Amino acid sequence: MSDYEIPKIWEWNKDEKNQFGNQPVAGSRFEQTLPVGEHPLQVYSLGTPNGQKVAIMLEELSEAGVMEARYDLYKIDITKGDQFGSDFVSINPNSKIPAMMDHSTDEPIRVFESANILLYLAEKFDQFIPTSLAEKTEMMNWLFWQIGAAPYVGGGFGHFYSYAPFAQEYPINRFTMETKRQLDLLDRHLADKDYINGDEYTIADMAIWPWYGRLVQGSLYGDAAEFLKANEYTNLKKWADRISERPAVKRALELEYKAIK
Predict the structure, then answer these.
(1) Residue 42 lies in a domain
(2) 44 part of a folded domain
(3) For 70-80, how does the pLDDT look when each residue is reduced to its tens digit (9 = 90+)?
(4) 47 in a domain, yes or no?
(5) CB within 8 A of 116, min separation 6: which ones?
(6) Full-model pTM
(7) What CATH code is carried by the domain that includes residue 148?
């Protein structure tokens, strides 16, 4: 039992610090000038699961010979508050990585939210996205599923299992239950498929793998894979291993993020 009592009105304790500098207000906190490299696409990101999605897509485009998708990749260190600088906030007012500027157009286009960046690049270069309405819709089903589901894994299970200042049974049980349900969902879906959309590798795989593939492979949250009995999800594990063997995926995980200052 906790001795915490919910107050009538929540008030922000400004003296209480947290690892990621979270505050209950949006907007920039300081002036910032982000570097702009020589390539058409400027990506400001970090090697987290959401950042890895975009890195994988860009490396897959390179693997496919799409020269127009060359990019510069810069590190936004969320533990140092880079995401709250004025230039980054002008690209993504939500202060979350990844964010991208496309300078190949007459007027530069800002793109934020990881799934939207994947979709933007897929449509711009006509790669890793089905052409038929039915197949594209099925892919979008899973792309949007990932966006809605992953916060339970990252902000829910991952936070309380790995980052919270002390262990709490109720939230760990709650988010473990949901995480395992999602793993079981994917395992059932992949029982007769090589990829999320069947035989075709798409941006849905790129979106889902950094979260769920890396989780069952033991690459997220310390020993979480053992805790979740991830080896029981054999179809999901085979899919995860299949994706991890792709040359572009291997390169994406090893990319060097340039300093912004």
Answers:
(1) no
(2) no
(3) 999 999 999 99
(4) no
(5) none
(6) 0.96
(7) 1.20.1050.10
Q: How far is CA 173 from the centre of its chain?
A: 23
* Percent of the chain surpassing pLDDT 70: 99
Residue 71 is predicted with a pLDDT of 98
Round to whole Å and give the CA distance between 121 and 115: 10
- Establish whether the linkage from the previous residue to 7 is cis, with ω within 30° of 0: no
Report yes or no: 172 and 23 within 8 Å, Cβ to Cβ. no
Q: Encode pLDDT of 29-84 as tens digits.
A: 999 999 999 999 999 999 999 999 999 999 999 999 999 999 999 999 999 999 99
Domain that holds residue 231: 133-249
Give the separation between CA 134 and CA 140, rounded to whole angstroms: 10
pLDDT of residue 1: 57
Between CA 154 and CA 146 the distance in angstroms is 12
DSSP string, 84-118: GBHHHHHH-TT--S-EEEE-SSSS-EEEESHHHHH
Alpha helices for the chain (secondary structure H): 49-63, 86-91, 114-125, 133-151, 169-189, 203-208, 214-216, 224-227, 234-244, 247-253
Tell me what the mean pLDDT of segment 249-254 comes to. 98
Q: How far, in Å, CA of 166 to CA of 133, rounded?
A: 48
Helix (H) or strand (E) holding 73: strand 71-75
What domain count does the chain have? Answer: 1
The two three-digit tokens of residue 256, written as one number: 């060097």
In a domain, 12, yes or no: no
